[in-house]
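Narrative summary of target 7.
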Amino acid sequence: DIWKQNNQINTSIKLPINVSVNSKRVKQIQSFENYLSQIDLVSDFYIKSFNNKNTIYKIIFNGNPGQFLNLMKEKDFDIHTNKEIWEIK
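Modeled conformation, tokenized:
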């Protein structure tokens, strides 16, 4: 029962997350997009803006921020959350 409670998906929660990736890291961007498309809890993602320095994604996540960060950590995406727009280092 504890496992069920911790892993229950509430699709009514739509958490918008903004993540910035260095635009010069093309392989990292491709890997990030591929991984986002595989995650069941990601209902949508798109490029919100980009320039020669950063590509900023808007991600609609059906879970809490901790779940998102844990999923990213599993694939070695080091996300810094100390700003409004989170950054992949």
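Helices lie at 2-6, 26-38, 65-74.
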